[in-house]
Q: What sequence folds into this?
């Protein structure tokens, strides 16, 4: 039977590593970490102003982060796919 690597040890398709994002004096994200593996379903839950939209924007490359960049292997495919479908990214 072939060995399947543990999902935690595989390279994530998108991640945030200690991301800090500020809008003026407002801190939207303060040291946020997130890993998304291929095939995973992600739900971000939290109150208004918790940074959910900011985190997604960083993962998609729509928002620039502070000193720790967001890394994503899928943002170009997501953005180009939304343009093909008639959406805007």
A:
């Amino acid at each position: 039977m072939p060995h399947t690597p543990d999902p935690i040890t595989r390279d994530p398709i998108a991640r945030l590593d200690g991301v800090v994002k500020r809008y003026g004096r407002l801190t939207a994200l303060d040291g946020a970490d997130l890993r998304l593996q291929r095939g995973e379903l992600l739900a971000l839950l939290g109150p208004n102003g918790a940074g959910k939209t900011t985190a997604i924007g960083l993962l998609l490359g729509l928002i620039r982060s502070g000193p720790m960049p967001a890394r994503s292997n899928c943002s170009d495919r997501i953005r180009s796919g939304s343009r093909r479908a008639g959406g805007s990214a």
About this structure: The first strand starts at residue 14 and ends at 23. Confidence is low (pLDDT under 50) at residues 75-89.
